[in-house]
Amino acid sequence: MESVHYFVWGLFRGLQNTQEIREQCEELETHIIDRVEDYTHSGVSEKDAFSLVVKSLGDLSELIDTITGEKKKVLIKKLDFLLMGVAAIFGTVYMAAVGVWFYFHGFGFNAIYVVVPAWLGFFVPTVLKYIDYRMHPEEVASVTVTTYKEIKSSVSGWFILSVACWVANLLLVHSDTFLSVMWAWMPMVAMMTWPGIDFLRLWLIKNDTVLIAAEEMKS
User: Fold this and answer.
1) pLDDT value at 97 more than 90
2) What are 111-155's pLDDT values in tens digits?
3) CA pair distance 99, 122, nearest whole angstrom
4) Distance between CA 109 and CA 97 in Å, rounded?
5) Most CB atoms within 10 A, among 21, 38, 95, 110?
């Protein structure tokens, strides 16, 4: 059916004609033709059948994004938990370092009053994400795949802000305020979660760690 062929291939007009896209187009075209034939066998005209099938497909933009790799279907609760879990591990190490720094800069064991509330900011969300994941382990969502260009932007943003912190630190190092000590490493390290989470998210998706497996979901 030429109308189906032109419709399907028109959806991907302007995109790179890769082997994967060609295979997906052929599969979608076959699916639509089969559905149209089902309708025509029931007495519906080919034109009306085609309109009914296209309407039943709904918004195809998500399908196109998935085929082209711009979006992936993932186990969203698992992805959220893994990202938050790694952030919690990082936060534990980071807050331990911050606690040691405060301890040796006049706070002594009172540093615990600074460190523990901040550490809970990592721990509590991780627990909540884990509970949410255990309650909805198979919840699926389409997510935009982070690109290396976006990671480069987050690294650049982290670098610029880190430099700003160090410049401010150096300007205050000879002041009479409590900011005269070397404190810029703390926001610099804390902000590493920005590019870090972006990179981890990309790695988890690229390595199929959280991708939805049709066979697994059917079982």
Assistant:
1) yes
2) 999 899 999 999 999 999 999 999 998 888 777 776 777 888 999
3) 15
4) 14
5) 95
